[in-house]
């Protein structure tokens, strides 16, 4: 009896130490398992806390790190947006960690019996990182709760090489996908998802892999969610998408060439880009700086993305709402659409040109990073 009471007291004491949180945070209330010997108890995170830090685009100043081996575990399934630093290669790959030592690092691996994430957390602490957490229940808990799972480029390449049964789906607009897709992929634009259900496999156990224009593109996530609602049981995403594949595999996207020209914007010159309907980043920024009133600038991302940060002075019309609001667009000045990668802005351009020939529509084919204060960085594709 005394032994049993002492054991209970010991468990309560250990739990109390963890809940006091030696460090910057307390253990999340939904932690299912008691801490074990060797765990990184200074910053244990439960599912709810981790879920709040996982998003596409990735949450700023947060890095999710999968400490499992690559080929057999990370590649075929990991938390969306996570990077892979196997604990056995931590020292070799430590340069993948953020330069800012105040960034939040969340390590995870294969569940409560896996020590890899804890081992890596201790190593990161020695490097001077101040905010470290471990999602001890890791990937098994994440999958059990029905959360989205992502795969790597290496996994997709293996499926292609093995001629496996799968469906690889490019969720970008047709005009973008036609410039270059991952081999074996089919194009089902997210905005046309319901129109092309016949392209999906009849067997709902077939693995569906959705991708789009990179970590700033939400189209693959949106399509994956729709496929799950249809009853497909094995739906994953490749968040890094075509930009990473193109870089790793050297697959060049076709570039359509158009002659350089200019468009009048109340006396300021917007220069056409290489792709039909685009204007160059350089000319846009000059006009926007000198005569912002001469342009009607439209952010076609979702409202959540717009509220998190946009170009100051832009209005928000999500691309999915554009058909219903196309009549509101002005005709007395150029209308320029933008998003984070050029995919949705290009789709907006196509939509408006088909519906309103009188609108002087253009779009930015660029990678754009947004800040909450209205500042941004923009890179021409």
From TrEMBL:
InterPro entries: GlpE_sulfurtransferase (IPR050229), Rhodanese-like_dom (IPR001763), Rhodanese-like_dom_sf (IPR036873), Thiosulphate_STrfase_CS (IPR001307). Residues 58-151, 162-254, 291-379 form the Rhodanese domain. GO terms for molecular function: thiosulfate-cyanide sulfurtransferase activity. PROSITE patterns: RHODANESE_1 (PS00380), RHODANESE_3 (PS50206). The keyword Magnesium does not apply. CDD domains: RHOD (cd00158). Transmembrane segments: none annotated. Keywords: Pyruvate, Transferase. SUPFAM superfamilies: Rhodanese/Cell cycle control phosphatase. PANTHER family: FAD-DEPENDENT OXIDOREDUCTASE (PTHR43031), PYRIDINE NUCLEOTIDE-DISULPHIDE OXIDOREDUCTASE (PTHR43031:SF1). This is 3-mercaptopyruvate sulfurtransferase SseA, contains two rhodanese domains. It comes from Propionivibrio dicarboxylicus.
């Amino acid at each position: 009896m005394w032994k049993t009471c002492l054991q209970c007291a010991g468990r309560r004491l250990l739990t109390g130490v963890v809940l006091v949180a030696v460090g910057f945070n307390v253990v999340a209330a939904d932690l299912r398992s008691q801490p074990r010997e060797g765990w990184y108890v200074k910053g244990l995170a439960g599912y709810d806390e981790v879920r709040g830090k996982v998003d596409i685009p990735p949450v700023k100043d947060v890095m999710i790190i999968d400490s499992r081996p690559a080929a057999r575990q990370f590649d075929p399934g990991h938390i969306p947006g996570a990077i892979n630093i196997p604990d056995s290669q931590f020292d070799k790959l430590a340069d993948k960690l953020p330069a800012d030592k105040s960034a939040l690092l969340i390590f995870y691996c294969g569940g409560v019996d896996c020590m890899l994430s804890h081992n890596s957390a201790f190593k990161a602490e020695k490097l001077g990182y101040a905010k470290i957490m471990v999602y001890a229940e890791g990937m098994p808990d994440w999958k059990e709760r029905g959360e989205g799972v992502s795969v790597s480029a290496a996994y997709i390449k293996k499926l292609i090489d093995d001629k496996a049964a799968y469906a690889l789906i490019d969720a970008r607009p047709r005009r973008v996908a036609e410039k270059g897709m991952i081999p074996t992929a089919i194009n089902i634009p997210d905005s046309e998802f319901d129109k092309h259900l016949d392209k999906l496999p009849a067997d709902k156990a077939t693995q569906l892999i959705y991708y789009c224009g990179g970590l700033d593109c939400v189209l693959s996530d949106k399509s994956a969610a729709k496929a799950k609602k249809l009853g497909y049981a094995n739906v994953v995403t490749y968040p890094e998408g075509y930009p990473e594949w193109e870089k790793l595999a050297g697959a060049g996207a076709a570039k359509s060439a158009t002659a350089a020209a200019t468009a009048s914007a109340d006396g300021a010159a917007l220069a056409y880009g290489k792709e039909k309907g685009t204007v160059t980043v350089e000319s846009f920024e000059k006009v926007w700086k000198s005569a912002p009133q001469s342009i009607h600038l439209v952010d076609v991302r979702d409202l959540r993305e717009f509220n998190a940060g946009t170009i100051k002075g832009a209005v928000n019309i999500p691309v999915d709402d554009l058909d219903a609001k196309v009549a509101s667009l002005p005709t007395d000045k150029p209308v320029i659409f933008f998003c984070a990668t050029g995919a949705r802005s290009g789709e907006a351009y196509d939509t408006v040109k088909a519906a309103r020939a009188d609108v002087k529509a253009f779009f930015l084919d660029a990678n754009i990073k947004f800040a909450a204060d209205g500042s941004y960085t923009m890179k021409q594709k």
